[in-house]
Known about the structure:
The protein is an alpha/beta fold.
Amino acid sequence: MKTVLVTGGAGYIGSHACKALKAAGYTPVTFDNLCTGWQDAVKFGPFEQGDLRDRARVDEVFDKYDPVAVMHFAALSQVGESMEKPGIYWDNNVGGSLALIESAAAHGCKNFVFSSTCATYGDQDNVVLDEDCVQRPINSYGASKRAIEDILANFEAAYGLKHVIFRYFNVAGADRDAEVGEFHQPETHLIPLILDAIAGKRDALTIFGTDYDTPDGTCIRDYVHVCDLVDAHVLGLKWLLEGKGSWVFNLGTGTGFSVREVMDQSKVATNREVPFNTGPRRAGDATKLVSGSTRAAAELGWKPLRSTLPIMIKDAWRWHQTGHYDK
Ligand code: UFG
């Protein structure tokens, strides 16, 4: 069975990817430092604890498993935090990725799937956000991810490292069996915070900014189901293993929803009120991020069938009521 090294496999998206990889016939080896991940989320293959900035440790794992590919999810990923502490984003995200990419190249592992983000595009009014759109990140998180995209291009030129880059829009939902799900501490993402407020685990959701230039004044995002997202990764891996070469794909649906629309849909999906208040804008937030690309569907045959708000919220709600991890 082919082995895939999954960095961040103990995290939200990485754990779903491990489940999808196992179902597709691969052995996912999780490499994670557990700084934001959960050992309990590692259910589908071996676990190796370590930090990507520790090159000797990364080399050890490549030597032990000889993976056919890397799926690189491990990263700090909070936009607000990245504005307050840019240094840790450059150190952890860029420093860790560089050690990983160098180790992959040194071990002759030439297939690399990378989680990038629509935050690399920045805030661009009236511009279609497809993969050819200029990247002008407005937060340190997006800047760190764009830098890693550049490293991958340089390593392809030097060592033939083939890569598929996925630029995610907003990932939501959970595994339909609720075996794994979204569990951040502290939580910063919109849908789990809405569900916390609904469940009385926090007093209220604070809407960050009501004066954006959008129909209801709140930010607009393109939400994609985590299970659809990881399906694209399995297709991207197949793409690389078939020798189709390096490529970039947006992963979004092309439809945007405002914060207030997500709240309204959450009320319908759970049949419960969403307690909320309003606050100032959060630093680093773009007004609107909606994918303008159909490339993943056209080239990979990707079908994001679960990426509707009712399904994403219902799956997240099911997980929210039953799931949690301990370290
Ligand atoms: N929001 C609130 N209140 C909250 C939390 C969020 O109003 O308590 C708003 C945000 O201002 C934003 C929207 O809800 O407008 C979504 O915010 P999230 O924090 O859920 O997601 P982000 O858009 O900030 O970022 C997420 C991921 C990033 C990824 C990005 C792409 O965290 O990794 O989506 O848009 F790059």
